[in-house]
Each structure stands twice: as structure tokens, then as C-alpha cells.
Amino acid sequence: MNTKSSPVVIESVEPLSPHAKAVLEAGQQLFLDSVEVGREFCKTMVGTALTAIPVYVGLIKLFLPTGSSPITVIGIGWFVPVVLFLLSAAVSVGGHLPGRTLICLDLPAEIEAALAKATARRFWCGVIAFVFMAAGIIDCVYVLSSI
């Protein structure tokens, strides 16, 4: 296979139309926002997951008979939602923190790869955190309904 490419000949150069400029700016903004959306979601999940723990413990205290402990009434299973909420918060922190890779700003391909990696990492951290949070809520409802 021939790996040599033919030279590119530029015949005329015209300025970008206002429509083309607007589309280009919108594309740049979408590209940059794709990283920030995942980061903001993970930031919100950290607070939500950590807030769910005292709310759950308060509900346990509210529904338990006076003078009894959660372990005697529910067993050790009462602690599972707390662990799931903590896991959700921990994974969300992983999605919120910046990446640790060094990139060379002179290489556009390296910048694209780093942005794609950051976007994918934040997406999967958000999904996993949401799954842990949903499982914690479901287990919380199950535990509270078994009292």
C-alpha cells in the first residue's frame, strides 16, 4: 500500500461565514462542557451520598422502638445502606478529582486523548456512583419496611 500522500493544493481562502463561526463556537463549547457535566454530577453525588447517611440513621432512630438498638431489631443488615452510600461518595470523589496525566499542549492528538479519557472516567464514575446510591436507597427502603 502506498503511504505517500499527494500534496494538498489550496486554490482559494475565504473568511468563515457568521453561521460557520457560530457552529464552530457551539462545537467547542459542547466539547468543553462534556468534561464539566460529568465533574458537576460527581460533585453533586458526593454531597447527596454523604447527606443520605444521617438521613437514613435518623429514619432508623425514628422507626425503632424506644430503648432498642438497630442490631437487636434489624441485625447487621441495617449497616449495608451506609456502606453503599459511602461507596457512592468515594466513587464520586474519584470522578470529581482532576486526572493525573501530563499532556503536551503541542500535540492536539494527545489533548484529545486526555479529554476523551477524562470524559470516560467521569462518565463511568457517575454511573457506578449512581448504581451504589440507588442500591443504598432500595436497601434503605427494605430495611425500614422490615422494622
Describe the structure.
The protein has helices at residues 18-63, 70-73, 80-96, 108-145. It is mainly alpha-helical and 147 residues long. The protein has one domain. The radius of gyration is 25 Å and the shape is elongated.
Which characteristics define this entry?
transmembrane helix, mainly alpha, transmembrane, 147 residues, membrane, elongated, 4 helices
Report a brief summary of the structure.
With 147 residues, this protein is mainly alpha-helical.
Mean pLDDT across residues? 86
Number of strands: 0
Low-pLDDT segments, ≥5 res: none
Q: Helix/strand/pairing class, anyone?
A: mainly alpha
| H-E order | HHHH
Anisotropy-based shape: elongated
Major sheet: none
Q: Give the DSSP E fraction (strand runs of 2 or more residues).
A: under 5%
Count up the helices: 4
Rg over C-alpha atoms, rounded to the nearest angstrom: 25 Å
Helix share, percent: over 70%
N-end to C-end Cα span: 73 Å
As for the number of domains, it is 1
